[in-house]
Amino acid sequence: MNNQKVELLSPAGNLEKLKIAIKYGADAVYAGVSHFSLRIRAGKEFTFETFKEGIDYAHARGKRVYATINGFPFNSQIDLLKKHILTMAELGPDAFIVAAPGVVRLCRELAPQIPIHLSTQANVLNYMDAQVFWDMGVKRIVVAREISLKDVKEIKKHLPDMEIEIFAHGSMCFAYSGRCLVSAVQMGRVPNRGSCANDCRFEYTLYAVNEDHGTLFRLEEEPGVGTYIFNSKDLNLASHIQEILDSGAVNALKIEGRTKSPYYAAVTAKAYRSAIDDYYAGKFDANLYQKELHTTKNRGFTDAYLIHRPFEKTDSQNHDYALSKGSYEVTGLVTEDEEHFLCKYKVYPSEDIEIFTPKDEVLSECENEIGKIFKKEDGLYYINFKKILTETGKELESVHSGNVNKIKLPGKLPYLTMFRIENIEDNIVE
């Protein structure tokens, strides 16, 4: 059985989101540099220098960074991959996340000091496959998303020293273990090499053809039923954390989303941190975590396959829309000096704006000529600006996201604190 407290692993699409994830409760983050990571867009956000800065930031706070090298290389890339592995190893990450068996072996040869975590792309569903990778020197397996909790426990029974990580939240792929070719066929962007165009999220018009005489006609959808035929709902296992941790088989819970927003990184880290901590404190309350998670952009939520078998599921696809905006809009982000914020949406004087802080931060109420920070009867803290002043003292009637000037706060707030307001605009992105 696993007697050690489960690890919370968050995505870090860039240095700012790495810091946010850690500030809001993650024990570890995962990120990549270059096209050898399965998220090319996120990989481009990091240079080797900023990745090293992120590792140093995490280590200074007792947190961990796992480097993704989980793409599937062609023969022509192997020499470049060898150089990449050596360079990444010099930065001192806490593990490599790898998918291809050949890359596992290469990492063990070139950087034996760096532990290997096996990517979910390797599709481990049973203890036999897990044993193969354990014998190759893999320390942790991120099991296939299609696995059941029963099978996770079976792997742990046969390999008690193998660490097991599961995905707990984030986007789901409609293809089995992400093995999709739709983007490659339609856009020339290969999903298993990090450049998926998310074609499964598009709306499609359906046609039928009679091949005998070439008749082609459009299929009319029922009223209220869309044509997002490949569009999987997002994974959300927050309500099942107690059941998962009771199993004793899971060592780490992973959140998907390196290309998601800073707000997503903050909310998911804080919600799952609270869920884990509350479990160990004996006060687990799924409603609290779900309330926060539903404020993020999502495609609707599903508990996928860990608790229920695939053939038991009838609610894993969203056929009606591509993405909701979430119930809240982020309006500001507090800067490192803790005396200013940067506008992320729009802020006006005399409006109450909710303050969303990193985990375990304690706020103090204050009021002056700039504005006030105060606590309402709902137990939440808010900020209300009497004046909107830039760092240089210029007064503005309002501030919008296009304005890059720092705006003065009425009192100090923790670095990376966010301001948010309820989203009253159309909540669906088609």
Question: Your description of this structure?
Answer:
The structure is a single chain. By secondary structure, the chain is α/β, with parallel strands linked by helices. Helices cover 25% and strands 23% of the residues. The protein is built from eleven helices and 26 strands. It has helices at 15-23, 40-43, 48-60, 78-91, 101-110, 127-135, 149-158, 182-187, 241-246, 262-281, 286-293, and strands spanning 7-11, 28-31, 64-69, 95-98, 116-118, 138-142, 163-170, 207-210, 215-218, 234-236, 252-255, 301-302, 323-324, 328-334, 340-343, 346-347, 353-356, 366-367, 371-375, 381-385, 388-389, 395-396, 399-400, 407-408, 418-422, 428-429. It has an eight-stranded parallel beta barrel, surrounded by five helices. An eight-stranded antiparallel β-sheet has the order 18-19-20-17-25-14-15-24, with no helix packed on it. It has a two-stranded antiparallel ribbon with strand order 8-9. Strand 6 (138-142), helix 7 and strand 7 form a beta-alpha-beta unit. Helix 1 runs parallel beside helix 10 (262-281) and helix 10 (262-281) runs antiparallel to helix 11. The chain is globular, with a radius of gyration of 23 Å. 40% of the residues are buried. The mean pLDDT is 89.
Question: How would the blueprint of this fold be written?
Answer:
Elements: E1 7-11, H1 15-23, E2 28-31, H2 40-43, H3 48-60, E3 64-69, H4 78-91, E4 95-98, H5 101-110, E5 116-118, H6 127-135, E6 138-142, H7 149-158, E7 163-170, H8 182-187, E8 207-210, E9 215-218, E10 234-236, H9 241-246, E11 252-255, H10 262-281, H11 286-293, E12 301-302, E13 323-324, E14 328-334, E15 340-343, E16 346-347, E17 353-356, E18 366-367, E19 371-375, E20 381-385, E21 388-389, E22 395-396, E23 399-400, E24 407-408, E25 418-422, E26 428-429
Parallel strand pairs: 1-2, 1-11, 2-3, 3-4, 4-5, 5-6, 6-7, 7-11, 10-12
Antiparallel strand pairs: 7-10, 8-9, 13-26, 14-15, 14-25, 15-24, 16-23, 17-20, 17-25, 18-19, 19-20, 21-22
